[in-house]
Every structure is written in C-alpha cells, then in structure tokens.
Amino acid sequence: MMAEKPTLLYLETPVRNYAWGSHEWIAQIRGMAAPTLEPEAELWIGSHDADPSLVPNRGPLNQVIAEDPEHFLGLMATKKFGKALPFLLKVLAVAEPLSLQVHPTLAQAKAGFIQENEAGIHIHSGDRTFVDGNHKPELLVAVSDFYALVGFREISEIIELVGIFVEEGAAGLAVRILEPLIERPTAEALHSVIRELVGQADDRAFIAEITSAAKKVELKNDKYADIASWFLKIAKRFPDRPDLAVTLLLNLIHLKPGDSIYVAPGQIHSYLGGLGIEIMSSSDNVVRGGLTPKHVDVPAFLSMVDWTPGVIHQIEGIEEGGITTWSPPTDDFVLSRIDCSGELSGLEANAPSVLFALSNEALISRGSEIIKMKQGDSIFLTPGSPFAVYGNCTLWRGSCRVG
C-alpha cells in the first residue's frame, strides 16, 4: 500500500546577507548568537529559484513542488498560477537605508528578462537588472517601528519643503527642483526634475549645501524635522550623489507594529529602518535608480516609475478569531498573522501556504500529521483539510487566492 503524501513539510530557510541588514534581529528570532559576523537582511520562505527553502531529505522546495504540483499546490492554484508557488514570504531586517528602487510590472519583467537573456548577460551577473520574468508587488507589515520612503509627495508639499531648504541655504535646490515645479506643478515636470538628479555625476558642493540646510531644518522645523534627519543619515553614506535630493520628494512613512504598506509595481520607494514581515509575488526583480553600490539601471528605472504624486497604499488588517489578514489588490499573495493563546482549530487551507513562527513554540496539527515549530521555524502546508495550531505563539502565514 502506497504511503500517503505529506501535507505538512518542515522548511530550512535561507538568510540573505546584504549590507543594509541587521547583525541582531534575524539571529535573535532564530535563537542564534548575536551580533552576527555578517549583516542578515532577509529570511526567505518560499520556492523562488534564486534561493528556495529546503525540505530536509527531499531537496529544494521548488523541486519538490515540481515533482507533484497538483498535490503540493492544488489543482486550482496550478491552473491559476502554473507549477510554482506564486508568492515569497520574507522576514525583513533593515538596519541601513535601501536604494532608490522600483519593481516592474509583469509585462516589463517578461520583456526585460528575455532581453537580458538574449544579450547573454549571466543570471548571476552584477550587471543584471531582471533576474526572473515576474512582477513584484509587495506588502510589508511592521513588527517594530518601521520607516520608509514610498511614492512622491503632493507637488504642493514638495514646493513647501524644498522652499524651506532653499531658505536655509540650499540654493542648488531652487534651480534643480523648486523653480521647475513652481513653473509647472505637474507629474511631467516631476519626471524632468528626477531625470536631472539620478545617474548624474557626483556633486559634493550641491549635497553639502543641502546637508547644511538639513541640519538647520532638523532643529527648527517640526513638520519636516524627520525627513531632514533621514536625509542626514543617508548623506553619510552617499555624500556626493545628486540623487540623494530625491529623498526629499518622497513620502516619509512611519509604520507602528501592525501597520502596513503596499508597494505597487512602478512605485518609487526606499525602506529606511525596522523589522517587518514582507510578502510579494515570487520575484527578486529590483530596478535601482541610485543610492546604492549595486547595479543601477537609470533608463529602466525612469521608464518604470509611476510619477503620480500623493499615492500611498496602506491596507488595514482585518482581525477575526485571533487571525488578522491583510488582503492586497493582487491574487498572488495574502498575508495573515495568527495570534494563538492555547488552541485555534478548523483553520482553512484551500490554497498552498507557508507558516513562520515569530515568537514561542507551536504545534501544527492536521489529521495524523503533527509538526512542532520553535521560534524562527517555517513549514509548508499543501491545500486540503483544515489544520489546527496549539500554543501561545505568533505565526505569520503567507498564501494566495485561488478562487
């Protein structure tokens, strides 16, 4: 008699070491020694080809799924998304600001991926912009206080803010930003302003002026003190880069634990600091426009940016029965936080899911299958019968919509 196929799979999850990561947060969650030698930026829970989670004694999750996609993903998900998990769940530990960046639409990602393949650029080359053919909308929910720059401020607010910096001595901002936007306060003018800041030659005098003004604004202006403070922090890393001025034009977001931000393809952003849980379409496409030592692709960046000012997508989590769910405007992913105080049973699983234990231990039970999770552990659940959680714990669940 053939043994039944497992529906709960323990996962070994990779950690990505980027320079902007934390030496403590991810290690502490996983019960490892801290501070770590290398900065730990992202914990990946998923099946993306670049760094899939591992199923002990079976191999990488992407290969396990490919062997029997209808069992591991379900017939509905397979028909809708193909033979791969459509989302990637991450623990994000941001200790230093990230680059100015956007993510592509599906059409842009497919075209860019094919073009770079045909050009013979190796998939792991530092000159590569598109590492897969998928779009990358993403949703982040803060675990700690979390700060980010997301989307453009309203143009009237940009004019007010930059005007204050000009009054404090940043004369170069008048020519490069203030006067063009006063003359033509439109998204098209904003495009022209940004085009003259990113990908340009170093200009230490220009940034020195803004830095001097930022110190004064930080002390004197309550409304814009926070953005002045963040400008000064980023300027320590990039004291010569004209694209540093772009940070003044973006919405500064402060997320408290449980708050969220949804970043649509084309929305310019930079995460600044904090610990968060992030879920996205299964993609690693990042198109950078500046403020990074990594590969920058200014033409692609400018072609993808959504120039609409004043757009911020914050999704409210809906709580019901100990489960809070954030539902973004895409079917690729849904994010839930499970807060268990003893027992939660009858939890539906009509789509493939992953679970991550953020705090304390948990028992996951489904039929005769039981997996014990300690803090920092992850598991994969196939679609099928309901499951139960036992323990005093917080779990994060990534899934997708199959209906």
Describe the protein.
The protein is α+β, with helices and mostly antiparallel strands and 403 residues long. Among the domains are: 1-20 and 46-93 and 316-403, Sandwich (Jelly Rolls); 150-250, no CATH class. The protein is 27% helix and 31% strand. It contains eleven helices and 21 strands. It has helices spanning 25-30, 61-67, 69-72, 75-81, 106-118, 155-167, 171-183, 187-195, 204-220, 225-237, 298-304; strands at residues 8-11, 15-16, 42-45, 54-55, 59-60, 87-94, 100-102, 138-142, 146-152, 250-255, 260-263, 269-281, 287-290, 318-320, 323-326, 334-349, 353-359, 362-366, 369-373, 378-381, 384-399. Strands 1, 14, 15, 16, 17, 18, 19, 20 and 21 form a nine-stranded antiparallel β-sheet that branches. Helix 6 packs antiparallel against helix 7, helix 6 packs across helix 9 (204-220) and helix 9 packs antiparallel against helix 10. The longest helix has 17 residues, at 204-220. The chain is globular, with a radius of gyration of 22 Å. It starts with 7 loop residues before the first strand and ends with a strand.
Keywords:
globular; 21 strands; 8-stranded antiparallel β-sheet; 403 residues; alpha+beta
How are the SSEs ordered, and which strands pair?
Blueprint lengths: L7 E4 L3 E2 L8 H6 L11 E4 L8 E2 L3 E2 H7 L1 H4 L2 H7 L5 E8 L5 E3 L3 H13 L19 E5 L3 E7 L2 H13 L3 H13 L3 H9 L8 H17 L4 H13 L12 E6 L4 E4 L5 E13 L5 E4 L7 H7 L13 E3 L2 E4 L7 E16 L3 E7 L2 E5 L2 E5 L4 E4 L2 E16 L4
Antiparallel strand pairs: 1-20, 2-3, 3-6, 4-5, 6-12, 7-13, 8-11, 8-12, 9-10, 9-12, 14-15, 15-16, 16-21, 17-20, 17-21, 18-19, 18-21
Helix pairs in contact: 6-7, 6-9, 9-10
